[in-house]
Design a protein that fits this description.
Layout: H1 13-49, H2 54-76, H3 82-96
């Protein structure tokens, strides 16, 4: 395989060939990564299915995912600001005492 010059000099045809070669290498690398990742995941899944404590593992995983979900929702929930809550309480006390606070 011939390699196109990397410095951008040449007759212009090498630049296109270099881009094509880069695209092919990129796609091949991504495909290899996908195959490796899928193979690893399948191996892990097989190992999990062989375990005798499968139902316990599933229950623990379910509880863990539920806890993570709660944390995510709590983190992204739009709660009122702390100072705003204090101001609301102060206004409520002031109104309850007739404005003499």
């Amino acid at each position: 395989m011939t390699h196109a010059p990397r410095d951008g000099r040449g007759d212009g045809r090498g630049d296109d060939r270099g881009l094509d070669e880069q695209a092919v290498l990129l796609v091949a690398g991504l495909a290899d990564l996908a195959v490796t990742t899928i193979g690893s995941a399948v191996g892990t899944l097989r190992g999990l299915l062989r375990r005798s404590d499968g139902p316990d593992l599933a229950r623990d995983t379910h509880q863990d995912l539920m806890a993570r979900g709660r944390l995510v929702l709590d983190r992204h929930a739009t709660a009122p600001a702390h100072l705003e809550v204090l101001a609301q309480h102060a206004r409520a006390r002031q109104a309850a005492s007739g404005g003499d606070a």
